[in-house]
Design brief:
Blueprint: H1 2-7, H2 10-15, E1 18-22, H3 29-44, E2 48-53, E3 73-74, E4 84-88, H4 98-106, E5 110-114, E6 126-129, H5 136-146, H6 153-166, H7 177-188, H8 193-200, H9 206-217, E7 220-222, E8 227-232, H10 234-240, H11 250-255, E9 262-268, E10 273-280, H12 286-292, E11 296-297, E12 301-307, H13 310-325
Parallel strand pairs: 1-2, 1-4, 2-3, 4-5, 5-6, 8-9
Antiparallel strand pairs: 7-8, 9-10, 10-12, 11-12
Bound molecules: manganese (II) ion (MN).
Manganese (II) ion (MN) binds next to loops.
Length: 326
Protein backbone atom coordinates (compact mmCIF):
# COMPACT_ATOMS: atom_id res chain seq x y z
CA UNK A 1 0.00 0.00 0.00
CA UNK A 2 2.70 2.40 1.07
CA UNK A 3 4.98 1.85 -1.88
CA UNK A 4 2.02 1.79 -4.27
CA UNK A 5 0.85 5.28 -3.29
CA UNK A 6 4.36 6.69 -3.57
CA UNK A 7 4.78 4.81 -6.87
CA UNK A 8 1.61 6.43 -8.17
CA UNK A 9 3.34 9.82 -7.91
CA UNK A 10 5.87 8.80 -10.57
CA UNK A 11 3.51 9.40 -13.52
CA UNK A 12 2.46 12.98 -12.66
CA UNK A 13 6.08 13.82 -11.79
CA UNK A 14 7.38 12.45 -15.08
CA UNK A 15 4.64 14.31 -17.01
CA UNK A 16 5.59 17.68 -15.52
CA UNK A 17 8.39 19.89 -16.79
CA UNK A 18 8.32 22.72 -14.25
CA UNK A 19 7.75 21.89 -10.59
CA UNK A 20 7.44 24.18 -7.56
CA UNK A 21 8.26 22.57 -4.20
CA UNK A 22 6.90 24.25 -1.10
CA UNK A 23 6.71 23.78 2.68
CA UNK A 24 4.89 25.55 5.51
CA UNK A 25 5.14 29.09 6.91
CA UNK A 26 7.75 29.59 9.63
CA UNK A 27 9.91 26.94 7.94
CA UNK A 28 11.70 24.47 10.20
CA UNK A 29 14.41 21.94 9.47
CA UNK A 30 11.98 19.27 8.31
CA UNK A 31 10.16 21.64 6.00
CA UNK A 32 13.40 23.00 4.48
CA UNK A 33 15.11 19.61 4.42
CA UNK A 34 12.15 18.03 2.65
CA UNK A 35 11.93 20.88 0.12
CA UNK A 36 15.64 20.80 -0.70
CA UNK A 37 16.00 16.99 -0.78
CA UNK A 38 13.05 16.72 -3.14
CA UNK A 39 14.40 19.58 -5.26
CA UNK A 40 17.77 17.84 -5.67
CA UNK A 41 16.08 14.59 -6.63
CA UNK A 42 13.67 16.13 -9.12
CA UNK A 43 16.51 18.08 -10.75
CA UNK A 44 18.31 14.78 -11.29
CA UNK A 45 15.21 13.75 -13.25
CA UNK A 46 15.84 16.74 -15.53
CA UNK A 47 12.98 18.82 -14.16
CA UNK A 48 13.00 22.58 -13.86
CA UNK A 49 12.47 22.81 -10.11
CA UNK A 50 11.85 25.90 -7.97
CA UNK A 51 12.12 25.43 -4.20
CA UNK A 52 9.84 28.01 -2.61
CA UNK A 53 10.25 29.91 0.65
CA UNK A 54 6.79 30.80 1.97
CA UNK A 55 7.85 34.27 3.22
CA UNK A 56 10.48 36.81 2.17
CA UNK A 57 11.53 37.84 5.63
CA UNK A 58 12.89 34.56 6.97
CA UNK A 59 16.68 34.54 7.16
CA UNK A 60 17.16 31.03 8.57
CA UNK A 61 20.92 31.48 8.89
CA UNK A 62 21.45 28.16 10.65
CA UNK A 63 20.12 26.34 7.60
CA UNK A 64 22.15 28.29 5.04
CA UNK A 65 24.78 25.52 4.90
CA UNK A 66 22.30 23.07 3.41
CA UNK A 67 23.03 22.13 -0.20
CA UNK A 68 20.66 24.06 -2.45
CA UNK A 69 19.67 26.60 0.20
CA UNK A 70 20.72 29.59 -1.94
CA UNK A 71 18.33 28.43 -4.69
CA UNK A 72 15.26 29.02 -2.50
CA UNK A 73 12.92 31.57 -4.05
CA UNK A 74 10.51 33.62 -1.90
CA UNK A 75 6.99 32.65 -3.01
CA UNK A 76 6.10 36.35 -3.40
CA UNK A 77 8.75 36.67 -6.12
CA UNK A 78 7.63 33.58 -8.01
CA UNK A 79 5.12 34.71 -10.64
CA UNK A 80 5.00 31.57 -12.78
CA UNK A 81 2.43 28.82 -12.81
CA UNK A 82 4.35 25.54 -12.63
CA UNK A 83 3.13 22.32 -14.27
CA UNK A 84 3.12 20.74 -10.82
CA UNK A 85 2.92 22.08 -7.26
CA UNK A 86 4.52 19.75 -4.74
CA UNK A 87 3.95 20.43 -1.04
CA UNK A 88 5.98 18.78 1.71
CA UNK A 89 5.36 18.82 5.47
CA UNK A 90 2.18 20.91 5.04
CA UNK A 91 -0.96 19.42 6.63
CA UNK A 92 -3.45 21.91 5.18
CA UNK A 93 -3.52 24.86 2.80
CA UNK A 94 -3.83 27.37 5.67
CA UNK A 95 -0.24 26.50 6.57
CA UNK A 96 1.20 27.88 3.32
CA UNK A 97 0.88 31.54 4.25
CA UNK A 98 -0.49 34.10 1.81
CA UNK A 99 2.37 34.17 -0.73
CA UNK A 100 2.73 30.42 -1.20
CA UNK A 101 -1.04 29.96 -1.09
CA UNK A 102 -1.30 32.16 -4.20
CA UNK A 103 1.06 29.79 -6.08
CA UNK A 104 -0.85 26.77 -4.76
CA UNK A 105 -4.13 28.26 -5.94
CA UNK A 106 -2.98 29.00 -9.47
CA UNK A 107 -1.53 25.52 -9.96
CA UNK A 108 -4.29 22.93 -9.79
CA UNK A 109 -1.98 20.00 -10.51
CA UNK A 110 -0.75 19.08 -7.03
CA UNK A 111 1.07 16.40 -5.10
CA UNK A 112 1.65 16.33 -1.34
CA UNK A 113 3.83 14.42 1.12
CA UNK A 114 3.17 14.86 4.82
CA UNK A 115 3.42 13.20 8.20
CA UNK A 116 1.00 15.12 10.43
CA UNK A 117 -1.77 13.15 12.12
CA UNK A 118 -4.39 15.58 10.80
CA UNK A 119 -3.34 15.89 7.15
CA UNK A 120 -6.09 17.23 4.91
CA UNK A 121 -5.96 14.54 2.23
CA UNK A 122 -7.69 16.96 -0.17
CA UNK A 123 -4.70 19.29 -0.17
CA UNK A 124 -3.53 17.62 -3.40
CA UNK A 125 -4.81 15.25 -6.08
CA UNK A 126 -2.39 12.69 -4.68
CA UNK A 127 -1.62 13.07 -1.00
CA UNK A 128 0.61 10.66 0.86
CA UNK A 129 0.75 11.07 4.63
CA UNK A 130 2.32 8.76 7.17
CA UNK A 131 2.13 9.97 10.79
CA UNK A 132 4.36 7.03 11.82
CA UNK A 133 7.27 8.89 10.20
CA UNK A 134 8.97 11.27 12.63
CA UNK A 135 9.88 13.61 9.78
CA UNK A 136 8.50 14.29 6.34
CA UNK A 137 12.07 14.00 5.08
CA UNK A 138 11.84 10.23 5.66
CA UNK A 139 8.93 10.06 3.20
CA UNK A 140 10.82 12.20 0.69
CA UNK A 141 13.66 9.66 0.96
CA UNK A 142 11.21 6.84 0.21
CA UNK A 143 9.83 8.74 -2.76
CA UNK A 144 13.34 9.24 -4.16
CA UNK A 145 13.80 5.48 -3.92
CA UNK A 146 10.36 4.80 -5.43
CA UNK A 147 11.33 7.01 -8.39
CA UNK A 148 14.40 4.85 -8.88
CA UNK A 149 16.69 7.84 -8.29
CA UNK A 150 20.10 7.71 -6.60
CA UNK A 151 20.21 8.78 -2.95
CA UNK A 152 23.10 11.23 -3.18
CA UNK A 153 24.91 13.04 -0.31
CA UNK A 154 22.93 16.27 -1.00
CA UNK A 155 19.61 14.50 -0.51
CA UNK A 156 21.01 12.61 2.49
CA UNK A 157 22.22 15.85 4.18
CA UNK A 158 18.83 17.50 3.71
CA UNK A 159 16.88 14.47 4.93
CA UNK A 160 19.14 14.18 7.98
CA UNK A 161 18.42 17.83 8.82
CA UNK A 162 14.71 16.97 8.53
CA UNK A 163 14.87 14.07 10.97
CA UNK A 164 17.32 15.58 13.49
CA UNK A 165 15.21 18.74 13.84
CA UNK A 166 11.75 17.13 13.88
CA UNK A 167 12.89 14.68 16.57
CA UNK A 168 14.46 17.52 18.59
CA UNK A 169 17.97 16.06 18.12
CA UNK A 170 16.61 12.54 18.61
CA UNK A 171 15.02 13.45 21.94
CA UNK A 172 11.25 13.74 21.33
CA UNK A 173 8.83 10.85 21.78
CA UNK A 174 8.77 10.34 18.01
CA UNK A 175 12.41 9.20 18.14
CA UNK A 176 12.01 5.51 17.41
CA UNK A 177 13.90 2.71 15.70
CA UNK A 178 12.42 3.76 12.38
CA UNK A 179 13.65 7.36 12.66
CA UNK A 180 17.10 6.19 13.78
CA UNK A 181 17.17 3.63 10.97
CA UNK A 182 16.56 6.34 8.40
CA UNK A 183 19.19 8.53 10.08
CA UNK A 184 21.64 5.64 9.63
CA UNK A 185 20.73 5.44 5.95
CA UNK A 186 21.26 9.18 5.58
CA UNK A 187 24.71 8.93 7.17
CA UNK A 188 25.58 5.91 5.02
CA UNK A 189 24.62 8.03 1.99
CA UNK A 190 26.81 10.96 2.98
CA UNK A 191 25.14 13.05 5.68
CA UNK A 192 27.61 14.34 8.29
CA UNK A 193 25.91 14.61 11.73
CA UNK A 194 28.61 16.75 13.38
CA UNK A 195 28.66 19.26 10.53
CA UNK A 196 24.87 19.52 10.68
CA UNK A 197 24.85 19.87 14.49
CA UNK A 198 27.59 22.54 14.35
CA UNK A 199 25.52 24.62 11.95
CA UNK A 200 22.06 24.18 13.43
CA UNK A 201 22.72 23.89 17.15
CA UNK A 202 26.21 25.14 17.91
CA UNK A 203 26.28 28.41 15.99
CA UNK A 204 24.02 30.54 18.16
CA UNK A 205 24.50 34.29 18.13
CA UNK A 206 25.17 36.16 21.39
CA UNK A 207 21.76 37.82 20.92
CA UNK A 208 20.11 34.40 20.86
CA UNK A 209 21.84 33.33 24.07
CA UNK A 210 20.82 36.60 25.75
CA UNK A 211 17.22 36.13 24.60
CA UNK A 212 17.31 32.72 26.24
CA UNK A 213 18.53 34.31 29.48
CA UNK A 214 15.55 36.69 29.49
CA UNK A 215 13.22 33.79 28.82
CA UNK A 216 14.78 31.79 31.66
CA UNK A 217 14.33 34.66 34.14
CA UNK A 218 10.60 34.70 33.38
CA UNK A 219 9.92 31.00 33.84
CA UNK A 220 6.63 30.48 35.69
CA UNK A 221 5.54 27.26 37.31
CA UNK A 222 2.17 25.69 37.99
CA UNK A 223 0.85 22.28 39.00
CA UNK A 224 3.89 21.42 41.17
CA UNK A 225 6.26 22.47 38.41
CA UNK A 226 4.79 20.07 35.86
CA UNK A 227 3.46 23.00 33.85
CA UNK A 228 6.09 25.59 32.96
CA UNK A 229 5.85 28.61 30.71
CA UNK A 230 7.63 31.77 29.75
CA UNK A 231 7.23 34.62 27.31
CA UNK A 232 9.19 37.07 25.22
CA UNK A 233 8.18 40.33 23.57
CA UNK A 234 9.45 42.65 20.80
CA UNK A 235 11.20 44.94 23.34
CA UNK A 236 13.34 41.98 24.43
CA UNK A 237 14.48 41.37 20.85
CA UNK A 238 15.34 45.05 20.57
CA UNK A 239 17.22 45.11 23.90
CA UNK A 240 19.64 42.36 22.85
CA UNK A 241 19.67 43.08 19.10
CA UNK A 242 17.98 39.79 18.19
CA UNK A 243 16.08 39.08 14.99
CA UNK A 244 12.75 37.19 14.95
CA UNK A 245 14.24 33.79 14.17
CA UNK A 246 16.49 34.05 17.23
CA UNK A 247 13.36 33.11 19.20
CA UNK A 248 12.60 29.91 17.27
CA UNK A 249 14.34 27.51 19.66
CA UNK A 250 13.27 29.16 22.91
CA UNK A 251 10.63 26.54 23.65
CA UNK A 252 13.48 24.09 24.20
CA UNK A 253 14.88 26.28 26.97
CA UNK A 254 11.56 25.88 28.82
CA UNK A 255 11.43 22.20 28.01
CA UNK A 256 14.88 21.47 29.38
CA UNK A 257 13.75 22.07 32.96
CA UNK A 258 13.49 19.03 35.25
CA UNK A 259 9.91 17.98 35.94
CA UNK A 260 8.46 20.26 33.25
CA UNK A 261 6.12 17.85 31.48
CA UNK A 262 4.01 20.41 29.68
CA UNK A 263 5.72 23.58 28.46
CA UNK A 264 4.65 26.73 26.74
CA UNK A 265 6.58 29.61 25.26
CA UNK A 266 4.66 32.71 24.18
CA UNK A 267 6.20 35.13 21.73
CA UNK A 268 4.35 38.43 21.62
CA UNK A 269 4.52 39.93 18.10
CA UNK A 270 4.11 43.60 17.33
CA UNK A 271 1.07 42.84 15.12
CA UNK A 272 -1.25 41.98 18.01
CA UNK A 273 -0.62 38.24 17.67
CA UNK A 274 0.90 36.02 20.32
CA UNK A 275 2.67 32.98 18.89
CA UNK A 276 2.44 30.01 21.21
CA UNK A 277 4.75 26.98 21.18
CA UNK A 278 3.70 23.94 23.19
CA UNK A 279 5.84 20.97 24.15
CA UNK A 280 5.13 17.79 26.11
CA UNK A 281 7.70 15.48 27.65
CA UNK A 282 5.14 12.95 28.83
CA UNK A 283 2.11 11.48 27.08
CA UNK A 284 0.16 14.76 27.11
CA UNK A 285 -1.32 15.73 23.75
CA UNK A 286 -0.44 19.41 23.35
CA UNK A 287 -1.69 19.37 19.73
CA UNK A 288 -5.22 19.08 21.15
CA UNK A 289 -4.73 22.41 22.93
CA UNK A 290 -3.14 23.99 19.84
CA UNK A 291 -6.18 22.88 17.83
CA UNK A 292 -8.51 24.70 20.26
CA UNK A 293 -6.72 27.90 19.25
CA UNK A 294 -6.71 27.20 15.51
CA UNK A 295 -3.19 25.86 15.58
CA UNK A 296 -1.77 22.41 15.00
CA UNK A 297 1.26 20.22 15.07
CA UNK A 298 2.19 16.98 16.71
CA UNK A 299 1.25 15.40 20.03
CA UNK A 300 4.51 16.44 21.72
CA UNK A 301 5.21 19.65 19.79
CA UNK A 302 2.55 22.02 18.55
CA UNK A 303 1.84 25.70 18.04
CA UNK A 304 -0.85 28.31 17.61
CA UNK A 305 -1.38 32.01 16.92
CA UNK A 306 -3.53 33.93 19.39
CA UNK A 307 -5.08 37.29 18.59
CA UNK A 308 -4.89 39.44 21.70
CA UNK A 309 -2.60 40.52 24.51
CA UNK A 310 -0.16 38.36 26.45
CA UNK A 311 -2.47 38.35 29.46
CA UNK A 312 -5.51 37.40 27.36
CA UNK A 313 -3.54 34.56 25.84
CA UNK A 314 -2.39 33.28 29.24
CA UNK A 315 -5.96 33.49 30.59
CA UNK A 316 -7.27 31.50 27.64
CA UNK A 317 -4.60 28.83 27.25
CA UNK A 318 -3.39 28.10 30.79
CA UNK A 319 -6.70 26.53 31.94
CA UNK A 320 -6.52 24.07 29.04
CA UNK A 321 -2.91 23.19 29.89
CA UNK A 322 -3.77 22.67 33.56
CA UNK A 323 -6.40 20.13 32.46
CA UNK A 324 -3.73 18.28 30.49
CA UNK A 325 -1.32 18.10 33.39
CA UNK A 326 -3.84 16.86 35.92
MN1 LIG B 1 7.60 17.94 9.95
Amino acid sequence: METRSLDSMAAPIRAAHSIAVCGHVHPDGDSLGSILALTHALKRLGKQVTPLLPAVDCKLREYAFMPGFCDLVPAAEYQETPDLFFSVDVPNSKRFGADALAVYERCQNRLALDHHSDTDMEIAALTYSDPACAACGMIVWDLIEALGLPQEPEEAMCCYVAVVTDTGRFQYQNTDARALGYATDFVLSGAIPSLIANNIYLSRSMARVQLEAICTQRLSFECDGKLVYSWICPQDYEAVGACPEDGEELADCVRSLAGANVCMLLRVQDNGIVRGSLRAKDDSDVASVAHDFNGGGHKAAAGFNFEGSLQECLDAVLPRLRELVR
